Amino acid sequence: MAGQKTDARDVHVGRRIAEQRKKSSLTQKRVAQSFGMSAAQLQKYEKGINRISAIHLEILSRMTGMPIDYFFDGMNRSDDIPLQGFSEPPQQAFAEQSRSQNSWIGLVDVVAKHVTENFSEKGRREFAAAVQALDEKLSG
C-alpha cells in the first residue's frame, strides 16, 4: 500500500491489534511469522505507522478468535455511511466461560437455534435421538 498516508483510523486499528494480540498471549514474532514479515513491520502496524492489509487482518482475526469488526469498533468515521449498511448482523466473539460454567452452553444454544429454524419436526426428533444416543455412548 505504498503511497497511502496513514491517519487516526490506522492508529486505532493498530492499538486494537496490539491489545488483542497481547490478550491472546501471542508474541509479535509469532504473528509476524504467520504474516510472512518481520516483527518490526508488525510493530509499525500496531503503532499505526503503516496500514495493515485486509488479508493480514483476517489472519489475525482467526489467530485471536475475534471478528474482524472488533478491530474497527469505536473508531471515528470520516464518512456518512451507516455502520450496518447491507451487511449481515455482527458476529459475536467467542468468549471462554469460567471453569464453573459449562463452556458448551453457547454451542448448544447455537445448534438448537439452527435445528429449530432449519429442520422439520421429524428432523428435529431424529437429531435429538442422535444426541441422546451420543450421550448414552459417552456416559458408558
From TrEMBL:
- What SUPFAM superfamilies does its record include? lambda repressor-like DNA-binding domains (SSF47413)
SMART domains in UniProt = HTH_XRE
Renumbered residue ranges of the record's region Disordered: 1-25
* Ranges of compositional bias, category Basic and acidic residues: 1-22
Domain of life according to the entry: Bacteria
Record-linked InterPro entries: Cro/C1-type_HTH, Lambda_DNA-bd_dom_sf
Q: Name one Pfam family in it.
A: HTH_3
Q: List membrane-spanning regions.
A: none
Q: Where is the HTH cro/C1-type domain?
A: 17-71
* Name recorded for this polypeptide: Helix-turn-helix domain-containing protein
Look up and give the organism this protein is from: Methylobacterium marchantiae
